[in-house]
Fold each of these.
Amino acid sequence: MFDAVVIGGGPAGLTAVLYLVRSGCKVLLAESMTYGGQVLQTSDIANYPGFPKGVQGWELADLFAAHVEGLDFEHVQAEVTSLSGEAGNFTVHTSKGDYAAKTVIVAAGARHRPLGVEGEARLLGHGVSYCAICDGNFFRNQPVAVIGGGNSALEEALYLSKIVSRVYLVHRRDEFRGAKVYQDRVAKAENIEPVLSCVVDSLQGDSELEGIVVRHVESGEKRALSVNGLFIFVGMQPNTGFLPQDVQTDHGFVVTDIEMRTSVRGIFAAGDVRAKLCRQVVTAAGDGATAAQAAFLLLEQLNA
Ligand code: NAP
């Protein structure tokens, strides 16, 4: 039996593994993809301490992976499908089998929320994308639209503006939500055109995206934008589908106390999966450390 199963290999999960292993715990890390989580989909990370000139997402993910490499823990590349049991005796059900654990740290992160417009799923990979760093290069010197007004939309619009010919930054309100530093950069970028107070009315194209039609939220006036790419950044949804019903959530995000304890004893949550104010790499790492320490204290009680 494992002392802890950590679900998710992003900054929160890898930090939890680091702390648990250093505390002498027997740990399994379940991650369905490669280490790094959303960091891998981020271009430049400008606010992680220790990197005054910023750091590329893939580079930071590599450094996180290198930090746990060689540590004494087990790793399974599998999808967690459900979680049952109680503190001291959980079963983590995965696509590669079941694992017994005394505690569980849920660091499964979040994924981009779809816009919900007709044709979005059909045109995914054929013009529609949720990842500028993955797909931006396909639209080199072509016009694209970015949807959203938060940090992700602004940051990714800035990233794309260096590759594509023109970025239409479509936001449903007349002011952006994202940080001022990004707003200022967007205002200075010559090839980013803010399209404010507009929502996406429809997508054009059968097998490839040929354009979008946006609609002004007050006047109802429609405008066709001829774009080859559509990058959607309208918020995140947490990866919690495998959690038992009695784990309390808020708008889908897992509720914890300040020690990362969920409503179910023995289950802890860390990182973007958690209901919290600030979703950053640095707070994810902090959550991971706290969750590991709290799990360790509970393990001491369970083992007493
Ligand atoms: P977010 O902050 O929740 O912003 C989502 C944006 O999408 C908002 O502007 C929202 O409009 C808009 N939106 C939501 N639903 C929509 C819909 N159906 N149609 C059109 N627009 C819609 O999400 P995010 O930008 O993905 O960021 C997620 C978290 O990660 C945030 O906490 C963010 O601060 C953090 N993050 C930080 C950084 C950084 O610090 N460098 C980078 C990326 C993300 P309204 O404004 O009208 O609500």
Amino acid sequence: MAEIELLKHESRVFSPSTAWAQSANIAGMDAYRALCTRAQDDYTGFWAKLARENVSWQQSFSHVLDESNAPFYRWFEDGTLNASYNCLDRHIENGHGERVAIIFEADDGNVRKVTYRQLHQTVCKLANGLKSVGVKKGDRVIIYMPMGIQGVAAMQACARIGAIHSVVFGGFSAKSLHERIVDTGAVAIITADEQIRGGKTLPLKAIVDEALALPGCDSVQQVIVHKRTGNAISFNPKQDLWMEELITPQSKTCEPEWVSAEHPLFILYTSGSTGKPKGVQHACGGYLLWAMLTMQWTFDIQPAKDVFYCTADIGWITGHTYVAYGPLAMGATQIIFEGVPTYPDAGRFWDIIQKHQVSIFYTAPTAIRALIKASAINDQVHPKQYDLSSLRLLGSVGEPINPEAWMWYYQQVGQQRCPIVDTFWQTETGGHVIAPMPGATSLVPGSCTLPLPGIMTAIVDESGHPVPAGQGGLLVIKRPWPSMIRTIWGDPERFKKSYFPAELGGNVYLAGDGAICDKDSGYYTITGRIDDVLNVSGHRMGTMEIESALVAHPLVAEAAVVGKPDDVTGEAICAFVVLKRNHPTGQEATQIAVELRNWVSKEIGPIAKPKEIRFGDNLPKTRSGKIMRRLLRILSRGEQITQDISTLENPAILEQLKQVA
Ligand code: PRX
């Protein structure tokens, strides 16, 4: 490891060490500024050059950006490429076939390594297998898999044949899975018999069966099942196929399907402010380009040397860009871990870093906070008990990282040696948009720092006018960029309304977050969502989704959900519930609360379980019938209501809602 020392210039500002500033991919602020200036001066020329240098095109593009149907922007459209070719074949052609692509660590600690050549073979065989059962270019394939080599191979195999994958997180319920099957009109589902997490086996195939038993799944022709545990599962020979049996007879090579850069690569569902999740659609060319650039710029990836470890599940965007595509497109070596950070104990991440000599580690603040707590209780799982000297860079994603967690991460995990890149981005942005470049940007705990080159951010008020620096407002991106969301699958109107609202002029991308830009440094601090979207453990949850799930319960008449600050999960779900009868108290309230929690878990998935449920005979409403969510937020925090409540229809209700069931 190079001797990387971050110098502490003044309290809470950390500048890159000389070593970083000299040898990083983006070395020094001048290099950063030069890129920004190039983007300013010749926007399309800037992107065209990067796209030509980074992506391997089958046929190069002649046109960079088509804005004629804005906001449905099109990038590099007449260029053709294949994402899987870019992630696998070209590394083999460049002589890196024997480099380890994935180090897989199973829940029980068993390790399996696959080289680029081996992964290529698996992907080709699976791609041929998919073709043999009739999956074609443009077809949608649902992937409902555990974390593992096969999950990534399934995504790559779809990309290879031009099928559009939609990965559903293995923690989502049959109902959530069903919703996504119907919305995508999927022709096939790739799943596993079961998954293993924290020493427990959890069903996957059984949940697929449950989803398929619901109406509207006629599009599904085939269910391909990877044998993970080998335990007995129900098997319908008409529809189900073992993945291992499907791929064994297949050829080891599969000519990639060359597709337009605008061909959809995947659809990934995320929560919005209505009850229905949005199918965010990304395009092959621009997405891949940005995955590669951010791997180089933010993570400073050195493919021949680094061991990269992003802890995200492939069911989330982070697991798409920084597990399934980015590291592979760069030809790097990465860790994929099947289990949970607390099994067999809360030292598991540190153990993985030590065992596999991880050099770049990327995780979520919620995990850091949970591990801070665990190591305060049990010194044996404290990072100091492990040799973490292989680390050179740390990253954070998914939610604001509070300065205390940042400092602990910096001191205890990075041993004051590793810069921390706090990366702000979204499912819709495809990759980092505001983030430090570790060889250039000075770090300030709690700030995601500066927009990446080519990302034209601004902060505006509700009518789209820029707000003065230092004042909070809405975060927007003023110019299209290659990895941006293309549309919401099947709902272009919602795409326009959600992301390019007329109130802001219809031509800037509205991120959905509030932010402040510092007067002097230009650094951004994200202040949180401006819509009804919660961020629980770095996972996006729509309040309406949870409310709809609650009111679907036969006992419930009405429900309102708000986020409540939480030490570990960032935000916790707090539900205010009105039953179709008088509000319960005592033991009965506790029992119904347990039932409702389990209900939500079944409707959406365990991640959506409310932490707190409070019952009342009504909800606080204005005279026009609008629920006063602001009051509910105050109640959830246990704070005194000091504001004027004269517009409240039913003030007496507030007393009831103070009680947690
Ligand atoms: O609120 C922001 C928060 O996560 C949201 C995006 O969630 P999702 O699409 O699930 O993607 C998560 C992984 C990229 C954003 O609108 N968020 C993400 N990263 C940060 C963040 N908030 C503050 N700081 C971050 N670094």
Amino acid sequence: MLVDGTHYRSIWFDEADSAVRAIDQTRLPHFFDIITLDSLEDACHAIRDMQVRGAPLIGAAAAYGMCLALREGHDNPAQAAAQLAATRPTAVNLQWALDRVLKAIAAADGTDEQVRQALAVAAAICDEDVDNCRAIGEHGVALIRDIARSSDAPVNILTHCNAGWLATVDRGTALAPVYQAWEEGIDVHVWVDETRPRNQGASLTAWELLQQRIPHTVISDNTGGHLMQSGRVDLCLVGSDRTTFRGNVCNKIGTYLKALAAHDNGIPFYAAVPVSSIDWESDDIPIEERGSEEITAICGLNTQGVLDTVRLTPAGSAALNYAFDVTPARLVTGIITERGIVSADEAGLAQLKSRVASD
Ligand code: MRU
């Protein structure tokens, strides 16, 4: 997607310097900084501290983390993979990407060949992600087109957290249909949930929509229900870190409450997910718990133009910080994937197994 008119992916391999580069998402929206990942430790740190985040991007970063580990001479790839897997537990793409790299290097002869194979897999994961997100957009835009046909007003879409290009390698999942609609000339407007505690909506979704010049409004997390009751939301589109084979959707904390409000108001609620983030095995989802300082304090730009963190809560109050929640399948109208839109249930998701992208 575009940043000041220049196209960027969220992560890439710089062939000239043989270096892995990524956009530092902890500095957005105030500063656009590129980081270089040089080692396994750098990759683990970038994922854990959310310089890179979002399920598909975490997978891509982990794959590159394996390349760096091998290049550094780690002689136990399974241990390097375990270190990367431990950084964030919820997104299924992380383990999926690590498994792909481990499989590819299993038969490789020598370190150089292992690095070459790992780099090829990481590049393939990135390219596939771009293609998948584009296909998700092409399938999902049909929902927006249908709404646009029935009214002259802009289509109002509510989204939670950031499931845009910053959460993927390019284009996004939940935002891909929005970008597609905009490119087709459909009038859209996005309600952007701020998404406490880390504010991925207010800082990342707003920034990337602004960069693509798409009309949007940031709202506090508590506003969505009121907007839905007053007829100002046509469609909810969210991403997912893990969707189980039964159609339960795990996404950023607060997604469940939006789905409840959408259900109560008869508003379609869709999750846009690459097939790689479907858990075909289990309905049991590990929910990441993060540090309480993300609740007790907030970071922003101070009047001197410096990023600063200030305390919000009384020093003596405890805080609890779950990063994700699970929206039960019964509240999900459908799942948009690169292989088409299916119902959020076992039968619907099973159909995906026999389809190829863009069917
Ligand atoms: O904690 P984050 O910022 O990694 O959480 C991201 C989300 O919840 C996204 O909605 C999800 O990863 C889907 S991304 C396409």
